[in-house]
């Protein structure tokens, strides 16, 4: 299945791509990033995304997610 995501701000151009981060052992995120505008959206995953691949990890976004986790007041309980 091919999914085309269009730019929300720039004439509905098909320029939004999906990227992943894995900022901690049990943490996964899916990012949607537009190549033609400043649109970014992050989804928190409950486990590894079905389409997760190491070559789709964007290190810059992963670093941002790590910083958010480090600064968060409420920490996720350790898996038992």
Please tag this protein with its features.
3 strands; alpha+beta; elongated; 80 residues
Q: In a few lines, what is going on in this structure?
A:
The chain has 80 residues and is an alpha+beta fold. It has one helix at 59-71, and strands at residues 16-24, 27-34, 40-45.
Descriptive overview:
This protein is an alpha+beta fold and 80 residues long. 16% of the residues lie in helices and 29% in strands. It has one helix and three strands. The protein has one helix at 59-71, and strands spanning 16-24, 27-34, 40-45. Strands 1-2-3 form a three-stranded antiparallel beta sheet. The radius of gyration is 14 Å and the shape is elongated. It starts with 15 loop residues before the first strand and ends in a 9-residue tail after the last helix. The mean pLDDT is 85.
| Unreliable stretches | none
Largest sheet entry: 3 strands, antiparallel
- How would you classify the helix and strand content by structural class? alpha+beta
Helix content: 10-25%
Spatially, the strands of the biggest sheet line up as: 1-2-3
Number of DSSP helices? 1
Cα-to-Cα separation, first versus last residue? 36 Å
**Rounded to an integer, what's the Rg over CA atoms?**
14 Å
What would you call the quaternary organization? Answer: single chain
Total strands:
3
Percent strand: 25-35%
Summed over residues and divided by their number, the pLDDT gives a mean of: 85
């Amino acid at each position: 299945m091919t999914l085309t995501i269009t730019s929300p701000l720039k004439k509905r151009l098909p320029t939004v791509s999906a990227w992943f981060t894995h900022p901690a052992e049990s943490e996964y995120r899916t990012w949607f990033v537009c190549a033609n505008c400043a649109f970014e959206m992050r989804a928190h995953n409950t486990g590894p995304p079905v389409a997760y691949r190491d070559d789709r990890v964007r290190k810059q976004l992963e670093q941002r997610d790590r910083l958010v986790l480090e600064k968060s007041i409420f920490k996720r309980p350790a898996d038992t």
